[in-house]
Structure formats: structure tokens, C-alpha cells
Design a protein that fits this description.
Helix 2 packs across helix 14. 37% of the residues lie in helices and 21% in strands. It has 454 residues and is of the alpha/beta class. It starts with a strand and ends with a helix. An eight-stranded mixed β-sheet has the order 3-2-1-4-14-15-16-17, with helices on one face. It contains 14 helices and 17 strands. Strand 16 and strand 17 form a beta hairpin. Bound molecules: zinc ion. Zinc ion binds next to loops.
Length: 454
């Protein structure tokens, strides 16, 4: 049993002073005591808030950050970015993937993400053949999680077709491809791998309606009848148009009509929805997996936030392409995109007087925890001991109390407020730096320098 004592903490009942959190050997919170606590607790200077789940990540894409920011011959789009991404990943070895993932996870922990949902689709060798161990790449993701201490929900991706209408995959996609039977084998192996990692959870990730057939999606949801189901949906207007042509419905509409979307589901992006789709998705109990920095980077569009929140929709946030890994910046970008769209302020809040920082943060905690099927999102017994500690002496927090702390975190000081991060009871970040940053960054630099030269 370990115990940490904080000057102030955000508990399910609200802000409390002098809070002690006792943690069991399983990395879960055993007891929370406001106003003191047992002797012998390790004092941690600062304000404790729950660690955030990062519900959508393709770790390897961190290594190509900066490679696609140059204008091409015919103008650029999501689809030209995707070609750059395919060229980049065609050269990655399992060692490279592990090195890149480990560095991405170090950065996530340093900005307050304590658990990652890895939407994992780079499965096979560059010729599209499974490695001798079909779970080789899944094992590398698990190894990166173990090395850094970030929690993991692994979401192996089912990817069979190159586009709508069961189109054949293009050469850039061959490392992703499995038909359902081989995917079932991959899932069994991935389940073994995840089983060796304390607290890790597994779900499935049918990539999108363009990469799996309708029959396959029904089959996969039936075979894997429990656990999270994540799918990219309605990220791009071209995808919506192609879906209309192939399936006779918009992507979110089709999923709602055909798949019985419920709390197991997380629809990644869900950018292009009508008001009717938005309200129906909210009522389904599913989570919208928003990735505001990536959606901005890729020019996807703006989520229908006002309507979604008005109908009690649930959302979480993800770093997706990892172009920038920064939890407060994701929440800020989400709110600012809504402000620019609505030409209004404080949009992602439900009631008068509510703090926007608090609203964004607590909704992202709850939505992420649900989408990743993890006990987290509040400092309460039974949950993972995932704790982010903010620097109470930071000048930007002068005079701030209560929820204003979260407003300063999201809108002003940002990640600079984060000093200490505890994941599953282990102190992995101190003074803003991950304990293994140096060696993991060294390896990352070697890998990315070599890839840039080749
Ligand atoms: Zn994605």
C-alpha cells in the first residue's frame, strides 16, 4: 500500500483540501480521505486531478510529425496526407514501431494522459505477410506501454478493403489487411499479450465503413460480443459522399440504423453529422471520439458540438495522428473550434455559471473511461490511481480557486502547469519529465533520423 497526500484535489464530490489517496498493490485507489489521512503518506506539492484517457491514438504516426506540412502540386487534403503516411509506414520495422510508440507515450504522460487507446492497424511486414508471431506488432505496443507506465486499451483493427464497394487494397494498405478469420487469430494472440500487462484491456476496431463490409462488421460485432468497439466515421465529406453512394446512407446514420450503436461503441471523429444524426448518436449512449488537433491538422471539419451537448452526448478526446501531443491543447482546440463556428463563447458547457474548463475536462474523463472500458475518470476507490498534479505555485494560478484551476489549465497555462503524473500508483513524471525520457528519446531520435535519411 502506498499513499500520497495533496494540498488540494478534485474528488467526485468537488474540490477538497488536504487529501490523502491510498493505493493498493494492484495500482487501484483503495481509499480517499479529505482533510488529512493516515500518517506516513508521501507529500506531493500541488493540486491533484484525475489523469485523462487518450481514447484514440495511432502511435507510429508520431514519427511523421512535420513530414506533411509542405504544399503539394495539386493542393493538399486528408487524402494526400494519407499517401505520405502510407509511404512513411511502409519502412517501419517492429523495433521502429516500439521506439516511436514509447516516445509518444512518454510525451502523453508528461501532458497528463495516463492511459491510451491504441487503434492498432499496422500488423504485418512490408509485403503484407504476417510476422512469425501474428501479434508481433501488438507486442511492441504492449512493450511501449510497459516501458513507460501508461495504461493501455489495445484495439486491434479489422481492415480488409481499400475503399467502399469492397475495393481491393492499394499497396500502401497491405500491412493492415486481414479477412475476418485471420483477424480472429490476431485477436486471440493480442488477448494473450494484453493479458500479461496489468490492467490492460482489449477491444476491437473495425477501421471504417470503407475498410470493412457491412456483413463483416455485423459478424465481428457478434463474435466479439463484449468490450469496446471503435470505428472511424464521417471524418471527411468525401467519405460521407462515398458512403451514400455505396450504402445509401450517411456513415453515422448507417451505423445507427444497422448496428444497434450503444455504450460499447466509440465513433471516432463523427465530424459530419446532421442535427438528427447528432441527437440520435447522443441518445445511443455511445461516445464520440473527438481528436481536435488532428481534425484541425487534416482539415476534416468541425464537430456538431452545440447540438450534441444539448442532447447530453458523451465525448472523449484522442491524439490520433500525434502531430502534437498535448491534452490541455486538445480541449482548448475543441472549445475554440466551436466558438469560431458559433461565433459565441463558452459553448461546450451545459448550464449557466458552469466553468468551461471543468465541463471539458470532466466530460473527457467520463467519455474516455467509458470508451476504453477502464476504471478511471475520478479519484475514487476502485479506480486506477491515475493522478495529474498541477503546480499550485505557478504564476498563472495566482488567485485561482475551484474550477478556475481547470480554466487556467485548458485556456491559459496549458501543459506547463503539470509537474507530477502518477499512473496506476507509480510516479512516472516528476518536475514535468518522464523518468525514462532520456533513454527513450535517444532511441526515438536514432530511429526517426534513420527514417528521414532513407
Ligand atoms: Zn484515427
Amino acid at each position: 500500500m502506498r499513499a500520497f497526500r495533496f494540498k488540494r484535489a478534485l474528488l467526485p464530490t468537488g474540490w477538497s483540501d488536504d487529501v490523502t489517496v491510498e493505493i493498493g498493490d494492484d495500482g487501484l485507489i483503495a481509499r480517499v480521505t479529505p482533510g488529512g489521512g493516515p500518517d506516513g503518506a508521501e507529500r506531493v506539492a500541488g493540486i491533484a486531478i484525475p489523469g485523462l484517457p487518450n481514447l484514440h491514438c495511432h502511435a507510429f504516426q508520431k514519427g511523421m510529425a512535420g513530414l506533411a506540412e509542405r504544399r503539394g502540386p495539386g493542393g493538399d487534403s486528408f487524402w494526400t496526407w494519407r499517401e505520405v503516411m502510407y509511404r512513411f509506414l511502409s519502412r517501419l520495422t517492429p523495433d521502429d514501431v516500439e521506439a516511436i510508440a514509447a516516445y509518444a507515450y512518454v510525451e502523453m504522460l508528461e501532458v497528463g494522459f495516463t492511459l491510451v487507446g491504441e487503434f492498432h492497424y499496422l500488423h504485418h511486414d512490408p509485403q503484407g505477410r504476417p510476422y512469425a508471431d501474428i501479434g508481433e506488432m501488438a507486442g511492441r505496443i504492449a512493450a511501449a506501454s510497459r516501458a513507460t507506465g501508461i495504461g493501455l486499451t489495445l484495439l486491434p483493427c479489422l481492415y480488409t478493403y481499400g475503399g467502399f464497394g469492397n475495393a481491393a487494397p492499394n499497396p500502401g494498405q497491405i500491412r493492415f489487411i486481414n479477412a475476418t478469420d485471420r483477424f480472429v487469430t490476431l485477436m486471440s494472440r493480442s488477448r494473450e499479450i494484453v493479458g500479461q500487462l496489468p490492467g490492460a484491456v482489449i477491444g476491437i476496431a473495425p477501421h471504417s465503413l470503407r475498410a470493412v463490409s457491412a456483413e463483416q462488421l455485423r459478424e465481428a460485432a457478434a463474435i466479439f460480443a463484449t468490450g469496446p468497439v471503435h470505428i472511424h466515421a464521417a471524418e471527411q465529406t468525401k467519405e460521407v459522399d462515398d458512403c451514400m453512394a455505396a450504402l445509401g446512407a450517411r456513415p453515422v446514420q448507417w451505423l445507427l440504423d444497422e448496428m444497434g450503436i450503444d455504450q460499447r461503441w466509440c465513433l471516432i471523429h463523427a465530424t459530419h453529422m446532421t442535427d438528427d444524426e447528432t441527437a440520435r448518436l447522443a441518445r445511443s449512449g455511445a461516445v464520440a471520439g473527438l481528436c481536435p488537433l488532428t481534425e484541425g491538422s487534416l482539415g476534416d471539419g468541425i464537430f456538431n458540438g452545440e447540438t450534441y451537448l444539448a442532447t447530453q452526448g458523451r465525448f472523449g478526446i484522442g491524439t490520433d495522428s500525434n502531430i502534437q501531443i498535448d491534452a490541455p491543447a486538445e480541449l482548448r482546440q475543441l472549445e475554440y473550434s466551436q466558438r469560431l463556428k458559433a461565433r459565441a463563447r463558452n459553448v461546450m458547457t451545459a448550464s449557466e455559471g458552469e466553468s468551461t474548463g471543468r465541463s471539458l475536462y470532466t466530460r473527457a474523463l467520463a467519455g474516455g473511461a467509458q470508451a476504453l472500458a477502464q476504471p478511471m475518470g475520478a479519484l475514487a476507490p476502485g479506480n486506477r490511481a491515475d493522478i495529474v498534479v498541477l503546480d499550485a505555485d505557478h504564476p498563472d494560478l495566482a488567485g485561482a480557486s475551484g474550477d478556475m484551476v481547470l480554466d487556467v489549465l485548458v485556456f491559459s497555462a496549458g501543459r506547463g502547469l503539470i509537474r507530477t503524473v502518477i499512473a496506476a500508483g507509480q510516479c512516472v513524471v516528476s518536475d514535468g519529465r518522464h523518468r525514462a525520457r532520456e533513454e527513450i528519446a535517444k532511441r526515438y531520435r536514432e530511429v526517426v533520423s534513420r527514417l528521414a535519411r532513407s
